[in-house]
Amino acid sequence: MKYRKLPSKEKLTKRFVYDPKSGLLTWKKDHGKKNKAGKVVGYKRASGYVYVYVDSIGYMAHRLVLVMSGCKLKQNQQVDHVNQKRDDNRLKNLRIVDQETNQSNRKIAKNNKTGTTGVYKLPNGKYAAQIKKYGKTIHLGSFATLKEAVSCRRAAEIST
User: Fold this and answer.
1) For residues 25-62, b (16+ Cβ closer than 10 Å) or e, as one string?
2) N or C end: fewer C-beta atoms under 10 angstroms in the chain?
């Protein structure tokens, strides 16, 4: 995914105040009739991400937070919310990652019946484990129990 060019740190710090404890951006000064100094900036979209407008252009708030903190964020770099809460923009919850790492920290799929990503039940009643690395699916084996399959999958996450 290609992102818009981000505003400068100087422009952002002139307009907004970042609270590292809450992860929220607020207006530094009154900005129009509705946007008073101290009021929280942005809105939460259906996707769960907070968006903020700067000069009539919408940006993901977590990307603005990183710029304000002095991070040199490149256009194509992705930002991962460590705790998977898309509206939690505290610096300790944000990390710059590649696409593969970002994808590996996704919430479990709604149709997953085993409770573990990469583990699924086979028609013969056994369980299979797999992991995706560098765009390739690696079959880790089939197992008699769910516990064995989950254990193998977790070990593969750590070692790769």
Assistant:
1) bbbeeeeeeeeeeeeebbeeeeeebbebebeeeebbbb
2) N
- What does pLDDT average to over the chain? 89
Give me the CATH number covering residue 133: 3.30.730.10
Distance CA 153, CA 141 (A): 9
Q: What is the DSSP string of 58-97?
A: EEEHHHHHHHHTT----TT-EEEETTS-TT---GGGEEEE
Q: How confident is the model at residue 160 (pLDDT cuts 50, 70, 90)?
A: low
| Containing structural domain, residue 75 | 9-103
For residue 108, pLDDT beyond 60: yes
Q: Which helix (DSSP H) or strand (DSSP E) does residue 147 occupy?
A: helix 146-159
